Amino acid sequence: MTPLIEIRDLCFQYEDGTKALDGVNFTLHAGETVAVFGANGSGKTTFVLHLNGILRGTGSVAVCGMEVNKDTLARIRSKVGVVFQDSDEQLFMPTVLEDVAFGPLNQGLPPERAIETAKTALEQAGMEHALAKAPYHLSAGEKRRVALAGVLAMQPEILVLDEPTTFLDPPAQANLLHLLAGLPQAKLIVTHHTRFAAELSTRAVFFEKGKLVADGPVQEIVQRFDWIYPALDAADLRYSAQRRF
Amino acid sequence: MHHVLMDQWSQGSSPLHVRDPRSKILALLAFLIVLATTAPDAFLTLAIDAAVLVAGILIAGLPPGSLLLRAMTVLPFSLTFGLISWLAGDRLRAVGLLEKSYVSTVAVLLVVGTTPLPLLLSGLEALGVPRLLVLVAQFLYRYLFVVSEQAQHLRLAAACRRGTERRRRLGFRAAAGALAVLFARSYYRAEGIHRAMMARAFSGKFVLLRRLQFGVADGLFTLTIAAFLILVRIQ
To answer: Where are the domains of chain B?
Structure first.
């Protein structure tokens, strides 16, 4: 079976010379949910921006059997839906309905069908009550849901979520978790929140200095890289404080 | 924020809101031409022009006080040029500059406040304004909230770290630094918005949910306004 995403030897360097990705190999199959771990600046976001051709490096990136290039970009962007870390960057139209319909309209749907699709996506995300609201009047959790609806309205086969729990309080995180668990798409979740990732994913990959250095079950990766919030006792904290000041 | 308020105002459903954007743009154009060609001392004509605007504001259900206050943002600029004319001895021109710039701004705000921006820009494009210019306007407007939000964050951060009352005002160096940071941060934020748009298949043209429809009522609206203004002007 053709994988949904197949990446071979992907390298990327920013204009200032920073090598952000170095020989990354990765495969994602239908129905899979994969957590992407790694320290800040390790290349996670750069990696996901290659999946729909927003960034273009060397090596090969294939989505649903199509190589990412100028000719396939439009189709690939319909297949890969990216929910960005900061929802405010994703919500730029005057009303929620217009924002969610933005993608379907760009895909060429007539306005009536775009509205229908947008309403269905808002229902899916539990935000149908907010369609006439201005996005900047929503709470952080609601914004995240609307941003997700905007992506779902494009009916993608793959969902990429960059730090989906950022700015969300615990109840909003739990709501998002339930929402995502119910979606059939294959998912790639970039996160530092290991518990959130473990609830949704069976597999995880770990990035270190632009390299994908590990791929395996979530718990195994978390333990191998000690990727959990450190439980410091009072003595540790006193020691750290003395050392710094 | 002005643009947020304008967005809210433009979502109404008054007889002015429902007019095709092209009819409002053409009426505005007629208004501005008539105003520009009116003598500064033709106070009755100017008063009638202003009354037309007030009637428009009331029909649209926009808050008159708030709109008239917002139009005052143009005054510092026109005051500068007005002052130059005044000092040069041309007092009538100075008065004309002030009254015309203010009334023109009210007229523009009335149209912007009754037309959602995507529709307004689409109307401009349909009237022959180059697409590139329309796109730039669209981005400028959308990124305005990015810049103002970043500025608010910086101001808050500065206020939190400003100690005594004596140091209340930001020094020139600090203000210059803040401006540079604001520019850099806004740039990155705008880049993020652009990425999000590209990710949702944006190809350089804003597609609208509502199609433009120029009906008989729209034509009559434009003709009536234009004819009335011209009649008042030539009387």
So the answer is: 2-127+210-234, 131-199
**What is the pLDDT confidence band of residue A49, given thresholds at 50, 70 and 90?**
very high
CB contact under 8 A, B192 and A94: no
Residues of B in contact with A82 (CB under 8 A): 196, 199
pLDDT digits (tens, 9 = 90+) for B171-220: 677 777 878 888 888 788 888 888 898 899 888 777 878 778 899 999 99
CB of B8 within 8 Å of a chain A CB? The answer is: yes
Please tell me what DSSP assigns to residue A55: S
| pLDDT value, residue A183 | 92
Decide if A102 touches B, using CB distance below 8 A.
yes
- The pTM (predicted TM-score) of the whole model is 0.74
Q: What's the complex ipTM? A: 0.79
Answer whether residue B18 shows pLDDT above 50. yes
Compute how many other C-beta atoms are within 10 angstroms of the C-beta atom of residue B226.
Answer: 17
Helix axis angle, B216-234 to B21-37, nearest 10°? 10
Fold of A5-95+155-244: Rossmann fold (3.40.50)
> Are B200 and A150 within 8 A, CB to CB?
yes
Gap from A236 CA to chain B (nearest CA, Å): 30
HSE value, Cβ hemisphere, 13 Å, CA-based, for B193 = 22
Q: How far is A226 from chain B, CA to nearest CA, in Å?
A: 31
Q: Given phi > 0 = left and psi -120 to 50 = alpha, else beta, which region is A109?
A: beta
The Cα A94–Cα A115 span in angstroms is: 15
Q: Calculate how close chain B gets to A163, using CA atoms only, in Å.
A: 14
Q: Which of A78, A107, A134 sits opposite B7 (nearest CB)?
A: A134
Burial label, A10 (beta-carbon count in 10 A; 0-12, 13-18, 19+): buried
Contact A94 B10 (CB under 8 A): yes
Which residues does chain B have within 8 Å of residue A45's beta carbon, measured at their own beta carbons?
A: none
A128-146 mean pLDDT: 87
* pLDDT tens sequence across B68-126: 999 998 999 999 999 999 998 888 889 999 999 999 999 999 999 999 888 898 899 89
Q: What are the residue ranges spanned by the domains of chain A?
A: 5-95+155-244
